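seq as requested:
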Amino acid sequence: MINLEEIKEQEIDLDKVYDYAEFRDKVSGRCDNCNSAYFKSSVKGGVFLRECRYCGMKKSI
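struct tokens:
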């Protein structure tokens, strides 16, 4: 399992969907990659997905 410190050291893969339970926000309500607070959200198959409007980083909440 990869911990948060390893994610901070490596570049964030924008094609991957990160699990919020494993990778909490560095700053609450902000994107870990670009620090934006603007997200688009969707629900599919009972999974809530949050995507940053600027860089496209995705987290499953």
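Residues 4-9 form the longest helix (6 residues).
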